[in-house]
Amino acid sequence: MRLHNLIKSGGRKDRKRVGRGEGSGRGKTSGRGHKGQRSRSGSSLRPGFESGHVPLYRKLPKRGFSNFKFRTEYSIINVGDLDRLEAGSIDRDVLVRFGLARSSSKLIKILGEGEVTKAFTVQADKFSASAKEKIEKAGGTVVVNEPAAADSSEAPAE
C-alpha cells in the first residue's frame, strides 16, 4: 500500500446498476418513478422551474446592483514581491518576464504588503497609498500610467 493508492473512506460511491430486474431493488423504472416529465430520457428542468407556477425568483423584488460588466480588473502585485527583483526600473515587461503578471492582464495595481529595501522606479496603472509611501521611502519613484484614450471611432457622431 502506498500513499497514492489510498482512497478516502466515503470518497467514492459505487455505481448504481439500474434496470436489472425487480429483485435488484432498482429494476423496472430504474429509480425514476412512474411516468411524468422527469421519468423521460433527456429530461432536465432548468433551475428554479416550478411547473406552471410563477417561480420564486420572479416573485421576489430585485435588490442591489452588480457592476460585473463595467468593473475594471487589475492584476495585483505586492511591494514585497517587487523587492525580490534587482533595483532599477520595473514596468509591465519586467513583471511579465519574472512571472509576477500575465501579458494578457490589462491593468496592474501595486499594493503595499511587504517591505521594500531597494530603490525602484515602478511603472503601473494604479498604486495603493501604502505602496506609494513604501517605494518612495526606500528612495524609489512611482510612475502612474496614463489611461488609454478612447478610440475616436467610438465617439458619437454629431
From TrEMBL:
Pfam families for this protein: Ribosomal_L27A
InterPro entries: Ribosomal_uL15, Ribosomal_uL15/eL18, Ribosomal_uL15/eL18_sf, Ribosomal_uL15_bac-type, Ribosomal_uL15_CS
Regions of compositional bias (Basic residues) in chain numbering: 29-38
Region (Disordered): 1-55
One GO BP annotation of this record: translation
Keywords annotated in UniProt: Ribonucleoprotein, Ribosomal protein, RNA-binding, rRNA-binding
Assigned protein family: Belongs to the universal ribosomal protein uL15 family.
Function: Binds to the 23S rRNA.
Name of the protein in question: Large ribosomal subunit protein uL15
Gene designation: rplO
